């Protein structure tokens, strides 16, 4: 599935010791393969590849992020961009017109939407304006009966526009009216003509296009045609539970200049999910809530807190270490944060995370007994100085030693980070 191949690509990135140009190239190739085989449009895949490459190589590393996290964040943001923004709607009285080919899931989704608005406390009703497919009205009526929602239709009537008009009159006490329409087997002129007329009469607040996730590339033509006819302002992708090809339908949204409103992920009336691009991509990549992490990291680690540039030039003092620890502390329970970041977290030795708050208090007290020179250059601290610092701070010599050991560990981690940065610079020069 798309999710599996994306996860594999990200795992491969996580396993790399150095993230250089070659690693970014390889990642982009893996992403391309994954997206193309799930039927995302070639042009969109190429745009995404270009953006990821140039951003990964050109953008400055955000403070507090290593190269790996930086690349991960870009991949994530570009994928979110690919599936587009969520289409908005409000929970007010309104009319919604459903469009889409036969079998796409319009009637089922009309029932699901009735359920959705009903749960939000609105009075809902449906109109079955599909008189093309035999039994279409009965199918909608059955769904509506199940949830006790009024449903208007007339299987004998040949004129879908008349059904819509009569339905509006019959459902005048209803707050949200959803009109199910006919689909046909292929895009035909009389289908487009009919839905255009219904649209003119109904003057709906929303015109939502229902697309089967399994359609792949063909989804684009449909989206384009329906959009030209009635102006689609939201897309519902159905059957996301049953296919690896969802990419085509998802990216067809770009034809409509709208966004995805809902995702259908099952056959029951409850299987409808409000689309959320961030959550969707996070799940696709198998990474918990990445958006929360990215925001958290950005707000916790402000540039003024840590002089990253000085550290990258090779200067890393005890005070720097302390500030780093403080910044990390602000990110909240550390283990939780790291569990949200399976890739970046791997670099941090787990013993560095234990009892951090208590440890920091102790570190602060010990550091207060050091001279400015010692804080600036901890390599000055020999055994006799250690004894002096321990006495002055009421700590044991072992505790002072632990602080120095901790400092050295951080310094080593930072060296790896610096190595990546150098690889990064080298790679930029090659461009
Ligand atoms: P319409 O011709 O556009 O009205 O399509 P229908 O609503 O009749 O749906 C066609 C078939 O797709 C039916 O068998 C539905 O049960 C099925 N279906 C619709 N939405 C979903 C979905 O989200 N998941 C799955 N698995 N099946 C769906
Ligand atoms: Mg139908």
TrEMBL record:
Sequence ranges assigned to domain Signal recognition particle SRP54 helical bundle in this UniProt record: 1-83
Every SRP54-type proteins GTP-binding domain range: 93-286
Key words of the record: Cytoplasm, GTP-binding, Hydrolase, Nucleotide-binding, Ribonucleoprotein, RNA-binding, Signal recognition particle
Positions that bind GTP: 100-107, 180-184, 238-241
Top class in the EC scheme: hydrolase
Location of this chain's protein in the cell: Cytoplasm
Location of the AAA+ ATPase domain: 92-291
Catalyzed chemical reaction(s): GTP + H2O = GDP + phosphate + H(+)
InterPro entries, per the entry: AAA+_ATPase, P-loop_NTPase, Signal_recog_part_SRP54_M_sf, Signal_recog_particl_SRP54_hlx, Signal_recog_particle_SRP54_M, SRP/SRP_N, SRP54, SRP54_GTPase_dom
Subunit organization: Part of the signal recognition particle protein translocation system, which is composed of SRP and FtsY. Archaeal SRP consists of a 7S RNA molecule of 300 nucleotides and two protein subunits: SRP54 and SRP19.
Family, as annotated: Belongs to the GTP-binding SRP family. SRP54 subfamily.
PANTHER family to which the protein is assigned, alphabetical: SIGNAL RECOGNITION PARTICLE 54K PROTEIN SRP54, SIGNAL RECOGNITION PARTICLE SUBUNIT SRP54
Protein name: Signal recognition particle 54 kDa protein
